[in-house]
């Protein structure tokens, strides 16, 4: 799998995944191997939009003392943005062991040790019911 090294004109300077490198079937999105391979090569990608584009829609519903779960975190910066806004209890999950390890390393390097990152499948969460006040999903593939 390879990724386009060129930023596209309307992407705000981020590198986009070239369409020819997307999986051949939608079922591949449910395979952790696809994500491990992708996240081994990709530093950062925001599915849909960066937090700044939709924060006005969700911010009124979030309190800094809330516990927030982010499903399918990948290599997104969403948890960091929430933390910057004062939310101290953020847990991120992803099905990819590579994404989880890289996210943990990035957060450690930034000193953001309060954000928990867990390898988990959103179809079988390792948390008790009602463990979180808010669950954020921003572009996961529900198969």
From TrEMBL:
Keyword Protein transport: no
Lineage: Eukaryota, Viridiplantae, Streptophyta, Embryophyta, Tracheophyta
Top-rank taxon, per record: Eukaryota
Matching CDD domains: AdoMet_MTases
Record-annotated Methyltransferase domain positions: 68-137
Gene3D superfamilies per the UniProt record, alphabetical: Vaccinia Virus protein VP39 (3.40.50.150)
Keywords noted in UniProt: Methyltransferase, Transferase
Example of a GO MF term: methyltransferase activity
Keyword Methyltransferase attributed: yes
GO annotation (BP), single: methylation
PANTHER family: EEF1A LYSINE METHYLTRANSFERASE 4 (PTHR12176:SF80), SAM-DEPENDENT METHYLTRANSFERASE SUPERFAMILY PROTEIN (PTHR12176)
Identification of the protein by name: Methyltransferase domain-containing protein
Organism: Dendrobium nobile (Orchid)
Recorded family membership: Belongs to the methyltransferase superfamily.
Matching Pfam families: Methyltransf_25
Region (Disordered): 1-25
């Amino acid at each position: 799998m390879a990724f386009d090294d060129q930023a596209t004109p309307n992407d705000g300077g981020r590198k986009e995944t070239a369409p020819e490198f997307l999986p051949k079937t939608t079922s591949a999105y449910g395979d952790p191997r696809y994500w491990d391979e992708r996240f081994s090569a990709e530093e950062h990608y925001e599915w849909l939009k960066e937090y700044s584009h939709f924060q006005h829609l969700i911010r009124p519903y979030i309190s800094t003392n809330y516990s927030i779960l982010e499903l399918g975190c990948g290599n997104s910066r969403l948890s960091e943005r929430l933390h910057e806004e004062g939310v101290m209890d953020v847990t991120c999950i992803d099905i990819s062991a590579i994404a989880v390890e890289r996210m943990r390393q990035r957060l450690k390097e930034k000193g953001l040790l309060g954000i928990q990152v867990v390898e988990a499948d959103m179809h079988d969460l390792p948390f008790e019911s009602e463990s979180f006040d808010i669950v954020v999903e921003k572009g996961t593939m529900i198969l």
